[in-house]
Amino acid sequence: MNIVLLGAPGAGKGTQASKLAAEYGFIHISTGDIFRANIKGGTEIGKVAKSYIDAGKLVPDEVTCDIVKNRLAEKDIASGYMLDGFPRNLFQARELDKFARIDVCLNIDVPKELLMDRICGRRVCACGESYHVSTLNGATTCAKCGGKLYRRDDDNPETVAARLDTYEKQTAPLIDYYKAQGKLLTVHGGKGSPDGVFAEIKAKLDKLIAK
Ligand code: AP5
Ligand code: MG
Question: Which of 165, 33, 12, 164 shows the shortest CA–CA distance to 86?
Answer without folding.
Answer: 33
